[in-house]
Amino acid sequence: MNRGEVILVGAGPGDKELLTLAALKAIESAEVVVYDRLVSKEIMDLIPKEAKLINVGKNVGDHPVPQERISEILVEEAKEGRKVVRLKGGDPFLFGRGGEELELLVENSVKFRVIPGITSSIGAATYGGIPVTHRDYCSSVHMITGQGKRGTQPNINFGALKELDGTLIFMMSVGKIQYIANGLLDAGMDPNMPCGIVENGTRSNQRKVISTLENLERDVKSKDIKSPALIIVGRVAKLSNDFDWFSKLPLKNQNILVTQPQAKASKLAEAIKEAGGNPVLYPVIKTEPIRPINPPIREHDVIAFTSSAGVQSFFDDLMEKGMDSRVFANKIVAAVGSQTAKAMASYGIVADFVPSTFDGETMVKEMVKNGVISESKSVLLLRAEMGSRETVEALEEAGVKYCDYPVYRTEYISHEPLESDDIDWITFTSKSCVTGLLKTQSEGFLKGMKAICIGRQTEELAKDAGFETYISDVATVNSIVDKLKELASENSSEGK
């Protein structure tokens, strides 16, 4: 009988990019995932859709699933022959009770592995600009839990900790701040000893407070610091202001809604994340290729693509038929923008024409102005089933013959309504994204929210819908993020 296996996986402090390659591989191949409260949503999103999810999350003083039952669940699922991932915040063996869970697995002869994770005691401190060791300040680092066994008061030898003269890192300790601060002071530690508190470490909404031991309790309470938070006591905390790189990221603490189709959203999300923001993936449209298609390539002089989705649909069909880019021999091929041109290049086609402003109307007008098209040349538009009217109207106005040929269709995706207070910015990369988002919300709910748009036509539609609109300088993902950075900087300056 196949007994399956259990993999204890350390999910790290929250940022999915801090997962190890081994952890990512285990998560993506899991059949069952038993997870904790502190595992971030972006890591949860990596779990296969078909996997069985079992939430055993615990808050301080609130354990809806007792530890003994968690261990039993692991044994039961593994004995059903499944690959079980026990997903824990931080590292499984550092106050993660991983050792306790392994005991029952060993007792029941269940196969297991352990994948370490970056502990928040180091990860969160690092993102707060605090090196936990520095030879000019300390020669040791010590990790202490603020939780006693089964909810009892922790038994901490404060006198011994004071004599170590090292960095002290208290985990799961916000609720015990008075006990910790008074214990160290009573043991004779300098009241002016630097301290740091990092809340939600490594995440966009991370907060940091630098204090002293005598003011530690006051500052934790006045700033309303909540779990998960890390308390660092030691002289290294004084380095935080100089070494804090994370708080200086331009989109720090900004929640940015990404409405692109899921397949395209990752690039924008990654760029937002790299700038310190929190991308909220909320795809409101998806594209589906139209089949069968037989666009009349030979009958036209100019072939124009108005999106990368159109490029992919066309070339996928072309290759399924055993054909390739040679069908464009002696044709002029145009792309509406740089991303569409890049998609074409991946199939071996270099765009003959890309407009200065990336929209269909401008593409047509500039091709006419530059003599690329005229009344004597016909254009084949390969695009969405319900493409914008502005493009064909520009062709008609110029007297150019054309064929508007759909190669894919756009479908809208239903969602639960948004919590608008949680969103700082919305990104729109097309008119369809604007329409798709509006379909998911009650009328007027989104009015006044700030939106960054690609293209004049998209911006006009968003403005008509009541958004406070801004337009990226260029129709690219990087330009959207640059505009977000610029506006976030202006808002920050105005707030000073």
Keywords:
33% helix, alpha/beta, 21% strand, 496 residues, Methyltransferase, Cobalt-precorrin-4 Transmethylase, Domain 2, 5-stranded mixed beta sheet, Rossmann fold
Task: Characterize the structure shown.
The strands form four sheets. A five-stranded parallel sheet has the order 3-2-4-1-5, with helices on both faces. The protein starts with a strand and ends with a helix. The protein has helices at 21-28, 41-44, 67-79, 98-107, 120-127, 158-164, 177-186, 216-222, 240-243, 262-274, 308-320, 338-345, 360-369, 389-397, 431-440, 456-464, 477-495, and strands at residues 5-10, 32-35, 52-55, 83-88, 111-115, 141-145, 167-171, 194-199, 207-212, 229-233, 255-258, 278-281, 285-289, 302-305, 332-335, 378-384, 401-412, 425-428, 450-453, 468-471. The longest helix has 19 residues, at 477-495. It has 496 residues and is an alpha/beta fold. The model has no long low-confidence stretch (mean pLDDT 92). The chain contains 17 helices and 20 strands. The chain has four domains: 5-118, 3-Layer(aba) Sandwich (Cobalt-precorrin-4 Transmethylase, domain 1), CATH 3.40.1010; 122-243, 2-Layer Sandwich (Methyltransferase, Cobalt-precorrin-4 Transmethylase, Domain 2); 255-284 and 413-495, Rossmann fold (3-Layer(aba) Sandwich); 288-410, Rossmann fold (3-Layer(aba) Sandwich), CATH 3.40.50.10090.
